[in-house]
Specification:
Elements (H helix, E strand, L loop, with lengths): L25 H16 L4 E3 L9 E4 L11 E12 L2 E7 L2 E10 L2 E7 L5 E6 L2 H13 L10 H23 L1
Antiparallel strand pairs: 1-2, 2-3, 3-6, 4-5, 6-7
This protein binds zinc ion.
Length: 174
């Protein structure tokens, strides 16, 4: 397994709608393992393949906390097939360092995905998994959580991130 590099905004790959997986090959399974390792290494609770520059609809999620253990979910071609209610909750993102803000999403979602064995799962959740799934599927469609904020906040944050990215680039040149 390997820890992959997590792309940061404004990397153009984060704007790409990535492709559905047609066959679950050993390569796909290896990517899912690497994504899980990258997610744990980065202390994230979810990761989309888009964030590590891979053009496939793959997501890993583990919402375990010290108090409450959850399972590692490896999802192939995940889709939200129904949503209910609304909930505003603070989000952060491994691709958007140092910014957290409140995002409104469905409270409860029904979703579908294939597991690494190719078995289809249809499930419902109204907790943290529901939140993370919506955030990660957005990534697969080229959307980051900043895009769900008011136009004013969005413009402000993007300006800040661009400035920071430029600073990082200049620092590397020294
Ligand atoms: Zn994210």
């Amino acid at each position: 397994m390997a820890v992959l590099t997590v792309l940061k905004v404004p990397d153009p790959f984060l704007r790409k709608k990535v492709k559905k997986v047609q066959d679950i090959t050993p390569e796909v399974l290896k990517i899912l393992d690497d994504m899980a390792e990258t997610m744990y290494y980065s202390n994230g609770i979810g990761l989309a393949a888009s964030q590590v520059g891979i053009d496939m609809r793959l997501v890993t999620i583990d919402v375990s906390t010290e108090e409450k253990k959850s399972e590692l979910l490896k999802m192939i071609n995940p889709e939200v097939i129904g949503g209910e209610g609304e909930l505003v909750m603070e989000e952060g993102c491994l691709s958007v360092p140092e910014i957290r803000d409140e995002v409104k999403r469905y409270k409860k979602v029904k979703f579908r995905y294939l597991d690494p064995e190719g078995k289809e799962h249809i499930a419902e959740d109204d907790g943290l998994i529901a939140r993370v799934i919506q955030h990660e599927i957005d990534h697969l469609d080229g959307i980051v959580f900043l895009d769900r904020l008011s136009p004013l906040k969005k413009a402000l944050y993007y300006r800040r991130l661009k400035k920071e990215a430029k600073k990082r680039k200049n620092e590397l040149k020294m």
